[in-house]
Amino acid sequence: MLAREGLPWVLGLAVVGALLAGIAYGGRWWPGYLLGGTALGLALFLGAFFRDPERTGQGDVLSAADGHVLVVGEEGPRVRIGTFMNVTDVHVNRFPLSGYLLRVEDRGGPRRPAFSPSASGNAQKRYLLVSPLGIVEVVQITGFLARRCRSWQEPGTAARRADRLGMILFGSRVDVVLPRARVRVLVRPGDRVRAGCTPLAEV
Q: TM segments (predicted)?
């Protein structure tokens, strides 16, 4: 399954690649093979990037992103778990637990590399979720290359654990911010996690 943002790119490049290869074959125009092969290769790459597999997981608080855990840090009464996604990871993000989506906020800021410790101050999209644990935040953080955070959910709607909430185009970072006193964190920096599958914390 492909994320909807990827369909025009993948289908368009596949059609262009096939047409160029056909023209090259019919007219013996060798550059057409090169251009057609490049277009088809890009279509395959983007097809892998925009993949959107079905996910089901068990646990109190699940990962919101695929990738590796970059940071686990306390911030006063809260704990932040940040996951870095490289370009080969699935980039569809998911709700870590069920609740009510109170609001979605866009915040401006710099575009430092997403793996930088200071990336939490980058331009970002924040989802505020009212949950049985209290207010939980899911934060899509842009990076040097990742410039677009896409939201698929509207404020004022119910959110279910592991439901898709949106995606970031190209490698970046997603943080989950939880009430520290209500959870026990189960992951540490360097751990591999999968959105909607891997437990981040337990109550």
A: 7-26, 32-50
Strand partners, 7: none
Radius of gyration of the chain from its Cα atoms, rounded to whole angstroms: 19
Q: CB within 8 A of 55, min separation 6: which ones?
A: 94, 162, 194, 195, 196, 197
| Phi and psi torsions of 6, nearest 5° | -90, -20
Which DSSP symbol is given to 55?
Answer: -
Tell the residue number behind the tokens 């439901």, with chain if given: 163
Supply the range of the domain harboring residue 88: 61-202
How many domains is the chain built from?
A: 2
Average predicted confidence (pLDDT) for the chain: 85
> Are residue 40 and residue 137 in the same domain, yes or no?
no
Residue 19 confidence (pLDDT): 76
What is the amino acid identity at position 168? I
User: Distance between CA atoms of 114 and 107, rounded to whole angstroms?
Assistant: 16
Whole-number Å distance between alpha carbons of 147 and 1: 23
Q: Can you list the residues of the chain whose pLDDT is less than 50? A: none
**Same domain membership, residue 109 and residue 195:** yes
155 alpha carbon, distance to own chain's centre: 19
Q: Which of 63, 120, 131, 172 is catalytic?
A: 172
Same domain, 111 and 36: no
**Which CATH number do you get for residue 86?**
2.70.70
Dihedral angle of Cα 137, 112, 70, 97, to the nearest 10 degrees: 20
> Which residues are CB-neighbours of 104 under 8 A, at least 6 positions away?
125, 126, 127, 128, 151, 153, 154, 155
